[in-house]
Amino acid sequence: MPKERTLFFCKECGTEVTKWAGQCPGCHAWNTLVEAPAGQAAKLKTLAVSASRKKAAETGMPMQKKPVTIRDVETSADMRQPVGMTEFDRVLGGGIVPGSLILVGGDPGIGKSTLLLQTCRMLSGGGIRTLYVSGEESEKQIKLRADRIGEFSDGMLLYSETAMGSILEAVDMVQPAVLVVDSIQTVYEESIDAAPGSVSQVREITGTLLQLAKSRNITIFIVGHVTKEGNVAGPRMLEHMVDVVLYFEGDKTAMYRMLRGVKNRFGSTNEVGVFEMREQGLIEVPNPSEYLMQGRLEDEAGSVVVCTTEGTRAFLIEVQALVCRSSFPVPRRTAVGTDYNRVNLLMAVLEKRIGLTLGDCDAYVNVAGGMRISEPALDLALVAALISSHTGHAFDSRTVFFGEVGLVGEVRAVSQAERRVVEAAKTGFTTIVLPESNRAALEKTGTTLMGVKLIGIKHVRELSKLSESS
After folding, report:
1. What is the pLDDT of residue 35?
2. Phi, then psi, of 129 in degrees rounded to 5
């Protein structure tokens, strides 16, 4: 009996090689090649292809599509189908696009299945036939969770199955407009001799679903498990194959969840939707700034407010810092919600450029509300919080900060300054400290808001003087 041939796949880029190597020859990543049997993957034929061939035979038309000019392709403004949840529609770019493949990732228990179950409820209630396929729960278990969310229409169908062939047969039978597969790591193709969730299985299942979505114009949501690093498990090519990648983020113990779009072929990326987890499911948060600022104490040293942006949306978030003399040989530094190394860098800038003695101090920085901010506009707020905590002088509680700080202490301009100013003014803040170049640009464009004072600064030493005058 001949020995079965095996291949090695790169988990990051999907490159195939016949022998194992420590480094992938495609993307040059280390220790990413995993073994998978070649099996009968090349012989795999989906029902979507069979259906298209059958239709071609019945109509007498050739199955092969011909290239067309871009002017001959017809589109319409109403191609998108709104889900019915404003926050979800915002992240999707206005709604779902028929024939798209959408990947939803997130930590276990964060609410991925609940979000998609609510999506199916909204769509089926609007007359759109939906099929929810679960490989992790039975129909009764899904029904128990659905009873907490609300009433479902007859247009919502459930199916508990893990075999890809059976799922495709169910799609043929039901003919849904929206299909949910929860999760892709539990589904397997019988013709491939590999465990569910393996590289070869995920590759083939994703390819089959992609072909199904495009050939039948079905919108397909697939749930993906994540690794301990927070990335979707399986080959990296999974994210390249789909049209939209969404990450559901947040601490399971916190009340807020954030749906972040990291890839969207039909809209802007890095859009964010905010939800609150309650007993009846996920509730939209229409004004995140107001919710994130709840519980803030006014006129406290070490507490400032930053206006950050995610996609086209601006948020107001409290940044807290605690600086105190260290009792350890090596001072402790902790950062929650932002980059730890960035905090160390800014502390070095303060010590070098304005003479603030922080080398023998412990420093603890926290971004309140459970959000994580990585954009450079947070720098000025971090510096202000560190200065305020060290000196004991509190900034005015109605002041907002944003700007990027360089290694020589200069304050650089950031994007979407006007949007940040408008959001701060709308929430009731009266003073905004921002880079001088941003202030000059706003003045040149004629952006003026009644009752709002703009303070432009060029160097962090000006921030130190502003603290003393507060």
Report:
1. 73
2. -75, 125
Cα→Cα distances 353→265, 383, 433, 459, 468, Å? 44, 12, 19, 9, 17
Place of tokens 């292809």: 49
CB 245, CB 103: distance < 8 Å: yes
Give the pair of three-digit tokens for residue 56: 């071609």
CA 172 to CA 50: how far, in whole Å? Answer: 11
Q: Report the amino acid identity of residue 288.
A: P
User: How many residues are given for the chain?
Assistant: 470
Per the structure block, which two tokens stand in for 91?
A: 């992240």
- Residue 199: per-residue pLDDT: 79
Report how far residue 227's alpha carbon sits from residue 232's, in angstroms, rounded to the nearest whole number: 6
| pLDDT score for 65 | 66
pLDDT (0 to 100) of residue 233: 65
How many Cβ atoms from other residues are within 10 Å of residue 162's Cβ? Answer: 14
295, 271, 275: which is closest to 285 by C-alpha?
275
SS3 258: strand
Measured CA to CA, the distance from residue 259 to residue 271 in angstroms comes to 8
In this predicted structure, what is the pLDDT of residue 304? 95
The amino acid that residue 436 corresponds to is: E
Handedness of CA 396, 397, 402, 408 (dihedral sign): positive
Cβ contact 355:462 at 8 Å: no
DSSP code per residue over 46-74: -HHHHHHHHHHHHHT--SSPPP--GGG--
Distance CA 302, CA 296 (A): 12
With vertex at residue 119, the alpha carbon angle to CA 239 and CA 132, rounded to the nearest 5 degrees, is: 75
Q: What is the pLDDT of residue 40?
A: 42
Which pLDDT does position 231 carry in this prediction? 67
Whole-model pTM? 0.76
- pLDDT value, residue 240: 86
Prior bond of 289 cis (ω within 30°): no
- The whole-number pLDDT of residue 359 equals 87
For residue 181, the cross-strand partners are 133, 222
Low-confidence ranges of the chain (pLDDT < 50): 1, 40-53
Let me know: does 233 contact 198? Beta carbons within 8 Å: no
Looking at the DSSP assignment, which residues form a beta bridge with residue 367?
319
